[in-house]
Amino acid sequence: MRCIPHTVVLLLCCTIACFASAEHRCIFDKIARKAGTPTTVVVREVPHQRSSGEQAMAISSSTWETMRFRVFTEDIENSSRYCTSASDVRPDFTGDIVQCTEGDVLTSAMRSAIMDRLIPQAVQMHVDRLHVLRTGGNIVVPTYTGLCGEFTIPSDHHTVGVSNADMVSYAAAGPTSGSTLAWATTCSALIIGRPVVGVMNFGAQVATDTEHNVRVATHEIAHALGFSIDALMVHTSLVAMPGLRGKNSVLVVASPRTLEKTRANFNCSTAPGMELEDEGGSGTALSHWGRRNAKDHGILLSLLERRREEQSRTVTSDFLAHGFF
């Protein structure tokens, strides 16, 4: 995927959703461990199939085009898959069956808010700003075990595949626990590593399209699109900086574009790169920007809209180093 150079949303700043508001705690690393290593997806060529009819990667164009992002909401449309009352027992989509609470109950209006406004707005934030080399056929979704297998996937997605898509995601609205409002992760990727299938779950507490909730959803979808410590290790320049502010070692992203934008945004010519968060435990550490560096940008995002583009270029620039954007 390629970021449109002059405007990139603040997708990845942990403070957007995880730290700027105490109402949401991101648990991406925990979810990613449950999901396991993303499988390699098959892209089926249409209509001119090769002899096998399939290939592990199909990139149809050398031109960067707008990302086609399709979301399927079977689990939000099926009343046996979300809480209708506190007496219900429902899947939480991490592999457990849990007792619903009053706070988990999803009304018709709340379901509509998630499907018709929250998800489309969050997805559009990415679609407006990310370009990809498009796939050349239908994305054939694997049959999953584990966390990704908890979601309802139409049977023809496993055979015919999903057409006109560069990213496919399956959404649910199962119960969430504690201060976690939503989560998302990658299930499958092309052989080059670009995510093409993911899942997302939205708790009832996020079932309105307020600015905060849209930012929560946008942030979580960014994880499904590939922002994780694993991807950073493979596709960017990670440097362990010893003795930074008295710490034994701090991981920073120091790829050329990230380094350039970090130094420019903070007006600091000696900044070693953009720090990764090293606190918060298994759900937060490493797969987010450092709170110390990014927190003010998350606050400014909501207070000073006119500065959104400048700061977004800084904190998302490392996506360019992945080679997918």
Number of helices: 10
Class from secondary-structure proportions: alpha+beta
Number of strands: 16
Strand order of the largest sheet: 2-12-13-11-6
Kindly provide the radius of gyration, computed on alpha-carbon positions and rounded to a whole number of angstroms: 19 Å
Q: Could you give the order of the helices and strands?
A: EHHEEEEEHEEHEEEEEHHEEHEHHH
What is the makeup of the main sheet?
Answer: 5 strands, mixed
CATH architecture: Roll
Number of spatially distinct domains:
1
Strand content: 15-25%
Percent helix: 25-40%
Mean pLDDT: 77
Quote the CATH topology: Elastase, domain 1
Tell me the distance between the termini.
Answer: 3 Å
Shape: globular
CATH class annotation: Alpha Beta
Low-confidence stretches: 2-22, 48-57, 296-319
Question: What does this 3D model show about the protein?
Answer:
With 325 residues, the chain is α+β, with helices and mostly antiparallel strands. The chain has a single domain, classed as Roll (Elastase, domain 1), CATH 3.10.170.20. Helix content is 29%, strand content 22%. The protein has helices at residues 14-19, 28-35, 74-77, 108-127, 211-224, 229-235, 256-266, 291-303, 308-315, 319-322; strands at residues 2-3, 39-40, 42-45, 54-55, 59-66, 69-72, 89-91, 97-99, 130-135, 137-140, 167-172, 182-189, 195-202, 238-242, 249-253, 274-275. Helix 4 (108-127) packs across helix 5 (211-224) and helix 7 (256-266) crosses helix 9.
